[in-house]
């Protein structure tokens, strides 16, 4: 039977998540869930951290990228893949393309962390730099795609990518029973959409929260307004969360998310530092936003069993945000 090929988010079903899970199993880790009695006491909640910072390429995005790359026909794959990304999707697509032995072309903002650029090149990715705005990114990308003929794998607005990200929450509900809520960072909304796809079917009683920087709060404003509001170039320490929602992720966010909560730059940095100090794990600023939001909104989460998705650990160690 030929693979079901969803064209839009509305076409995605739980079967696409199951198919993605089988397809990507040889190429990804089933990541661990960690707990911290200190953070439980501090928040009043029972927190379970799903550690995608230990994922291949250092981020959850290896799931969606692998699903897209290994779902291509041989004819499509021969032309390679291409994307634009501030970092983790670039790394992940380069990783997956390398495992399949095909070229990967990446448009990255010139301001992206050097550690991420080095890692993309280390996985064999070919980088073209752009200015740090959505407009510049899309213009430069259009040129690269035209020159290469490569298959576009969008960082999040792609049903294949969303189906791959959905495998993370599928693992989480197997690893931790009886969750009341799951919270994940939101930028473009790929991970949150994946949570929506999986949980709305397999665990419909689990509430889904998204966490966002105050300085890049377009998803929160979109959620309140009932339509997508896009910022072109927000500034935040959470560099993975600067991109706007698109139609495929908005489909899930608008239907399945309970709330989108925000945290200040200082709160995000404090939560990142706290996680490093107390859990002894390396996480990016973007991944600290859920904990920052939980600490800020204790009354929402207290007394509840909460899955917290730590989305990545690709940090530029020479530019830690608490070192002035």
UniProtKB/TrEMBL annotation:
Name the enzyme group at the top EC level: lyase
| Cofactor(s) needed by this chain | pyridoxal 5'-phosphate
The domain of life is Bacteria
What is the name listed in the Swiss-Prot or TrEMBL entry for this protein?
Answer: Beta-hydroxyaspartate dehydratase BhcB
Q: Name one GO molecular function term.
A: lyase activity
Coding gene?
bhcB
The UniProt record lists the EC number as 4.2.1.-
Q: Which Gene3D superfamilies match?
A: 3.40.50.1100
Keyword presence, Lyase: yes
Domain Tryptophan synthase beta chain-like PALP residues, every copy: 25-312
InterPro entries in UniProt = BHydaspDhtse, TrpB-like_PALP, TrpB-like_PALP_sf
Report keywords, A-Z: Lyase, Pyridoxal phosphate
């Amino acid at each position: 039977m030929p693979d079901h090929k969803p064209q839009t988010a509305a076409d995605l079903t739980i079967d696409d998540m199951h198919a993605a899970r089988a397809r990507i199993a040889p190429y990804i880790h089933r990541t661990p869930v960690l707990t911290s009695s200190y953070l439980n006491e501090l928040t009043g909640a029972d927190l379970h951290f799903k550690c995608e910072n230990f994922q291949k390429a250092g981020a959850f995005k290896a799931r969606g990228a692998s699903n897209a790359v290994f779902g291509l026909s041989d004819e499509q794959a021969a032309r390679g893949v291409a994307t634009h990304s501030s970092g983790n999707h670039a790394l992940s697509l380069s990783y997956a393309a390398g495992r399949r032995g095909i070229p990967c072309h990446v448009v990255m903002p010139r301001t992206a962390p050097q550690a991420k650029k080095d890692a993309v090149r280390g996985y064999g990715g070919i980088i073209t730099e752009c200015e740090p705005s959505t407009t510049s990114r899309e213009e430069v990308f259009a040129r690269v795609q035209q020159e290469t003929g490569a298959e576009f794998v969008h960082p999040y607005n792609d049903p294949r990518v969303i189906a791959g990200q959905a495998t993370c929450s599928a693992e989480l509900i197997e690893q931790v029973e009886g969750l009341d809520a799951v919270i994940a960072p939101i930028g473009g909304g790929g991970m949150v959409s994946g949570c929506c796809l999986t949980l709305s079917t397999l665990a419909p009683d689990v509430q889904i929260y998204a966490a966002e920087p105050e300085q890049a709060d377009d998803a929160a404003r979109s959620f309140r307004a009932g339509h997508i509001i896009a910022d072109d170039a927000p500034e935040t320490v959470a560099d993975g969360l600067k991109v706007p929602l698109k139609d495929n992720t908005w489909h899930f966010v608008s239907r399945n998310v309970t709330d989108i909560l925000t945290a200040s730059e200082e709160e995000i940095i404090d939560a990142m530092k706290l996680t490093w100090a107390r859990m002894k794990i390396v996480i990016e600023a973007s991944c600290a936003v859920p904990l920052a939001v939980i600490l800020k909104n204790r009354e929402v989460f207290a007394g509840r069993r909460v899955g917290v998705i730590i989305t990545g650990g690709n940090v530029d160690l020479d530019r830690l945000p608490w070192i002035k």
